[in-house]
Specification:
Helix content: 40-55%
Shape: elongated
Largest sheet: 6 strands, mixed
Number of strands: 13
Radius of gyration: 26 Å
Strand order of the largest sheet: 1-2-3-4-8-5
Structural class: alpha/beta
Number of helices: 20
Length: about 450
């Protein structure tokens, strides 16, 4: 045999290593697409570093090491599973990925993902192990001990990072005995995730599909409750509902005038008003996933003349008059007016409110009414009155975990109250205030939001 010719076993191992390299490259591509879909790309830096580290390791392997490929421990599969979970549509507000959480001076716990799921703060752990190697009672590697530690430290964690649930994803599934013990000993609830993800991207005049190089056909995932359920139930929100009850759905529809703008009326029609649901929830808890919290920037953007066909008159107004009206904000307003046809904001955010009921805290309600009164045009004022018939004013009731954040210039008290109220109701906040969102997420706290581009009132 030629000295320089690889053996069949070495050639097969080399082929496997090359496959693993391609998996890393595919992961980097899907990670780039994932970061473009999310508000915060901080997790991309961590994952990109880990994937590149794996790729460098694979590229540095000698022939001797490649021939003993079966003895190597690789993290490619684990990283694929993490990215797969991140791609799931129910995973939002990711604030930390593949990093330990410090519980005390002497103790910390590694968590794959810190995020929100349907408004709840969640810790996610991922297992890429073969089900045959997942034991329950084993002293060192048993799943029972791992879960017990997770739940214990989750309960001991600070209120800012304390999860409501621990979500466990097993990329190759688990055995029937482990499955049964998860449910019986920890009250685990089985969930459903897509076995694969696919993103359609435009390449010139053609369309191509980019998918992860691995499907998760045997995967299963469970969620385990952490601590008592301290979130508001039916009686609390019923009191909030009674504050601003508006009658029947039919009456709300009749109050929408088409001269306020067809797109505006379509936007409101997509929402679920409180009129029809007030009686529906009289004997059950609120379905928190059906709520959306509006901040002042969102309400202004929805009623703004720029969002509702008023830009032609604005752009035809003499520059001197516009400068006197908008002063230093003129360029900002003109840029919004010029972009409204390219990116119509009401159409863009409609999917975020479709089928959901809107809430607004008392402080935002007061601020919005004041701004509209001082700066709104007649049609903007009418739209404001109309949208306030579709949403409920709830008391300022910020969650403890948001109020526990240190108040700074970027995390001011006013915004802690409005975003914290949304967090209290498990409702994502529709906002253009991404400076506050970034500041919160830099602390490692997950905050569920839906962003939109800002819009200004046209004014008189």
């Amino acid at each position: 045999m030629d000295a320089g010719k690889p053996t069949p076993a070495t050639a097969a191992s080399a082929g496997t290593v090359e496959t693993d390299k391609r998996r890393c490259v595919a992961l980097l591509e899907i990670l780039q697409l994932l970061s473009e879909r999310t508000l915060c790309s901080s997790f991309e830096v961590t994952l990109s570093r880990l994937i590149h580290s794996e790729l460098r390791f694979l590229s540095s392997l000698s022939d001797a090491e490649i021939s003993s490929r079966s003895t190597l421990t690789l993290n490619v599969g684990h990283l694929e599973a993490v990215v797969h979970v991140l791609w799931q549509p129910f995973v939002t507000a990711v604030s930390r990925v593949c990093r330990p959480i410090r519980i005390s001076e002497s103790e910390s716990i590694y968590v794959d993902i810190v995020c929100s799921v349907e408004g709840d703060p969640v810790w996610v752990t991922v297992s890429d192990r073969n089900p045959r190697n997942i034991t329950w009672e084993d002293e060192n590697t048993g799943l029972k001990g791992r879960i017990s530690k997770l739940v214990r430290l989750a309960n001991q964690s600070s209120v800012m990072v304390k999860p409501s649930w621990i979500l466990m994803f097993f990329s190759y599934g688990i055995g029937a005995d482990v499955h049964q013990k998860l449910k019986s000993e920890f009250g685990a609830i089985e969930l459903t995730t897509d076995p694969f993800v696919c993103e359609e991207i435009e390449m010139g005049d053609q369309w191509t599909n980019l998918v992860l190089c691995r499907f998760f056909l045997d995967a299963c995932d469970f969620k385990i409750k952490v601590g008592p359920n301290t979130f508001p139930v039916m009686e609390t929100i019923t009191r909030a509902c009674s504050m601003n009850y508006t009658g029947t759905c039919r009456k709300c529809v009749e109050q929408m005038h088409l001269d306020l703008g067809l797109v505006f009326c379509s936007f409101l029609s997509a929402m679920k008003c409180w009129c029809c649901s007030f009686h529906d929830i009289s004997e059950q808890e609120v379905e928190f996933s059906s709520l959306v919290n509006f901040d002042t920037t969102a309400l202004i953007a929805i009623v703004s003349g720029i969002s509702n066909g008023g830009t032609a008159k604005l752009l035809s107004t003499p520059q001197a008059e516009l400068r006197a009206r908008f002063k230093g904000n003129l360029e900002f307003v003109i840029a919004q007016a010029n972009s409204k046809d390219e990116k119509p904001i009401l159409i863009e955010v409609s999917c975020s409110v479709s089928g959901k009921q809107g809430i607004v805290c008392e402080s935002v309600f007061a601020e919005f009414r004041e701004l509209i009164s001082m700066c709104g045009r007649p049609y903007e004022k009418q739209r404001a009155e109309c949208i306030l018939k579709f949403i409920k004013v709830v008391p300022d009731c910020p969650s403890i975990r948001i109020m526990s954040l240190r108040t700074t210039r970027k995390m001011d008290m006013k915004n802690k109250v409005l975003f914290g109220t949304g967090d209290h109701w498990h409702a994502p906040t529709l906002t253009a205030n991404m400076a506050f969102v970034r500041a919160v997420r830099q602390t490692g706290v997950s905050l569920s939001v839906t962003d939109h581009r800002p819009r200004a009132l046209i004014g008189k």
